[in-house]
């Protein structure tokens, strides 16, 4: 557009113009463009007045600041009624400002050729389109001095945020005024020539890169700046004609504001930007549509979060709770987005224990297993958790895997395993107990025994630590207990192994937490239900290292209380022999006896640790270079010297004083001979 400000020639004219402008900005009847023009005129007049010593420098600078701010507020605002959103001005100003960076440096951009650039023309077209939908035709022109009506330049085409980085505008906010730009008159009046056809430069000297590329960093950068600005960012529209959700087609400000969110957070979550980011394949690559793929760390994080939470359809869904421990494997792990497959009752007589329903790999053609009525009242996530986390699917354990504890093993076979295998024979008085307690020092094989019961009786094994019931599922502990028993009922015969049962069934204390009390009550209720129902084949196996802390009511329900002591010499020998039989070992019989003697007071777990440590001895005797090259059978066998060394670091974990406590409790409440 042509915009020429005439310098006032006389003081009288100047004053009347001043009054006219004052009326224009206060009347409330003029358009935003007229107001902006009026403010700009005021700014120029302030300058003029100061230059003519009509006003003091202090006064001039105050007035200048005041009107420059008001002017910028209108120019920068994208409010359809009160702002002009004149981004084109900013970019042109930027281009001009570049020339002032160095006197020697010459910019390839000029007022005329910038309009010939392909991307600027695209912007103009997009801007025209957008402006057409935003401004009434009457508002789209500005009357300047003498009624010259000119269409607005491509206002809304260029990036809004650029104004903030515009040196000229920054200067305008300060005490300085317009730089020495081509086309500005001596009085500071500004002339902007209409587009003149010139050769469009193929490259932009500003960055020595093709202009198409120039647009990318320039506007990509401006776009980011703008995301933090209070106004919307029509500058983004530059890229959007190639975007599926281009706002160029937006019908009005509402559409536009929905697309261009006002704050950084919204900007990141705006669907179109999100979509654009989602489509981006890593940094440094360009989208098919040409959208620059520069991403801030926050955006990158967002993209990765999206990928994480919406994995490609073929990718395996993460298992619930993110753990694969004790799960049935990847095929069973359906993840939180997967379809819930409830467990189904296990047909009696299945001797394998463990998993009852088929993994997902069964295929969609297979009919879904019937939902057990008893589970319908439970929360699916709880059932899923029980099936994946609590139901143990480890390898079967045999009685031979457990060294020593012969009395406990014999008792368990008699009162638990056989009745579970032959419920038809073990009826009435011969009926199996519903709860047993294994107590003793840590690491003596209580968990092994629990697993072995399940494996040998063909039962489903549920293993849970009581402390996790009270701490892991805070507030949900009792629901979990109920769900656990319900799922176990559907998976009969079942063994529910509760480690550290003392923390669940400890004697009532004054400071006892309400939630712990509720869990305990629920557990006792469920245990009673399992005990009274003669059809249910559910065995609760509690294990504890602190039997003395168990509540009397609970103790009474765990009718068989079996002491699992430290392994005797024969059991320790069994453990060493068994473990060494799987390794290259040169231990002679008498050396094994020596190891057994020296390990008095060791638990089963300590013995295992001793053997592990000894097995590392031959490796430690090798040079580092040899370890890298030798074959497995070249590793020297485990010798007594290795055990000798291992005894220096592995010590018994159970204090002799604690043993006295167990034996005492066993004599009082235990079911041993
Ligand atoms: N009697 C045993 N026979 C063979 N190995 C044993 C025996 N006791 C313990 N172990 C070894 O110690 C490991 C730990 O045993 P386990 O977890 O069964 O002990 P625990 O009594 O349940 O311990 P905690 O009370 O600390 O839970 C076993 O995996 C096994 O390697």
Description of the structure:
With 673 residues, the chain is mainly α. Among the domains are: 11-80, no CATH class; 373-563, Rossmann fold; 569-653, Helicase, Ruva Protein, domain 3 (Orthogonal Bundle). Helices cover 45% and strands 6% of the residues. The protein is built from 25 helices and 9 strands. Helix 21 (589-598) runs parallel beside helix 24 (640-649). The longest helix is centred in the N-terminal third of the chain and has 20 residues, at 32-51. The protein is elongated, with a radius of gyration of 42 Å. The termini are far apart. Mean pLDDT is 65; it is low at 1-8, 97-103, 135-294 and 308-368. It binds adenosine-5'-triphosphate.
What is this structure, in a nutshell?
With about 675 residues, this protein is mainly alpha-helical. Among the domains are: about 10-80, no CATH class; about 375-565, Rossmann fold (3-Layer(aba) Sandwich); about 570-655, Helicase, Ruva Protein, domain 3 (Orthogonal Bundle). Helix content is about 45%, strand content about 5%.
């Amino acid at each position: 557009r042509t915009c020429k400000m005439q310098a006032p020639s006389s003081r009288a004219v100047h004053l009347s113009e001043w009054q006219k402008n004052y009326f224009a900005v206060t009347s409330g009847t003029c358009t935003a463009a007229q107001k902006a023009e009026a403010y700009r005129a005021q700014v120029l007049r302030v300058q003029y007045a100061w230059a003519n010593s009509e006003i003091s420098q202090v006064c001039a600078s105050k007035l200048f600041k005041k009107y420059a701010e008001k002017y910028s507020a209108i120019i920068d605002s994208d409010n359809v009624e009160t702002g002009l959103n004149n981004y084109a001005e900013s970019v042109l100003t930027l281009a001009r400002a570049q020339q002032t960076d160095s006197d020697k440096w010459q910019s390839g951009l000029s007022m005329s050729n910038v309009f010939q650039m392909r991307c600027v023309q695209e912007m103009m077209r997009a801007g025209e389109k957008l402006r057409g939908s935003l401004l009434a035709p009457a508002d789209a022109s500005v009357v300047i001095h003498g009624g010259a009506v000119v269409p607005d330049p491509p206002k809304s085409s260029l990036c809004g945020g650029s104004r903030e980085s515009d040196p000229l505008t920054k200067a305008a906010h300060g005490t300085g005024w317009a730089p020495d730009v081509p086309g500005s008159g001596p009085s500071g009046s500004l002339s902007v020539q209409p587009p003149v056809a010139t050769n469009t430069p193929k490259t932009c000297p500003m960055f020595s890169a093709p202009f198409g590329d120039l647009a990318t960093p320039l506007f990509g950068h401006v776009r980011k700046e703008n995301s933090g600005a209070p106004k919307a960012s029509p500058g983004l529209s530059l890229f959007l004609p190639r975007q599926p959700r281009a706002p160029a087609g937006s019908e009005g400000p509402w559409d536009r504001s929905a697309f261009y969110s006002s704050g950084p957070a919204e900007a990141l979550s705006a669907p179109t930007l999100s979509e654009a980011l989602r489509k981006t394949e890593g940094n440094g690559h360009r989208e098919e549509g040409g959208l620059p793929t520069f991403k801030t760390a926050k955006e990158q994080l967002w993209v990765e979060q999206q990928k994480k939470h919406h994995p490609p359809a073929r990718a395996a869904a993460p298992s619930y709770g993110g753990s694969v421990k004790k799960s049935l494997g990847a095929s069973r792990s359906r993840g939180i987005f997967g379809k819930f497959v409830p467990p189904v009752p296990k047909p009696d007589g299945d001797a394998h224990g463990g998993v009852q329903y088929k993994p997902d790999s069964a295929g969609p053609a297979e009919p879904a297993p019937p939902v057990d009525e008893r589970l319908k009242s439970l929360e699916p996530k709880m059932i899923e958790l029980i099936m994946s986390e609590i139901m143990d699917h480890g390898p079967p354990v045999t009685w031979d895997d457990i060294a020593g504890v012969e009395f406990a093993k014999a008792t368990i076979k008699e009162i638990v395993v056989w009745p579970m295998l032959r419920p038809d024979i073990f009826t009435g008085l011969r009926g199996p107990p519903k709860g047993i307690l294994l107590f003793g020092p840590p690491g003596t094989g209580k968990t092994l025994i629990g697993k072995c019961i399940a494996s040998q009786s063909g039962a489903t094994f549920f293993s849970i630590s009581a402390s996790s019931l009270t701490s892991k599922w805070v507030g949900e502990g009792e629901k979990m207990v109920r769900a656990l028993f319900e799922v176990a009922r559907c998976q009969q015969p079942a063994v529910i192994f509760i480690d550290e049962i003392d923390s669940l069934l400890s004697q009532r204390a004054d400071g006892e937490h309400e939630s712990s009390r509720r869990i305990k009550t629920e557990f006792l209720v469920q245990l009673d239900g399992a005990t009274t129902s003669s059809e249910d084949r559910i065995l609760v196996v509690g294990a504890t290292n602190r039997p003395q802390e168990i509540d009397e009511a609970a103790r009474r329900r765990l009718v068989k209380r079996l002491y699992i002591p430290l392994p005797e010499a024969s059991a320790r020998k069994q453990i060493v022999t068994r473990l060494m039989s799987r390794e290259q070992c040169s231990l002679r019989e008498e050396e094994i006896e020596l190891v057994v003697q020296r390990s008095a007071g060791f638990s089963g777990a300590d013995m295992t640790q001793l053997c592990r440590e000894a097995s590392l001895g031959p490796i430690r005797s090798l040079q580092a270079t040899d370890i890298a090259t030798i074959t497995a059978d070249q590793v020297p066998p485990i010798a007594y010297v290795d055990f000798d060394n291992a005894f220096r670091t592995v010590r018994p974990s159970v204090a002799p004083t604690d043993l006295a406590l167990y034996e005492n409790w066993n004599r009082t409440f235990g079911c041993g001979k």
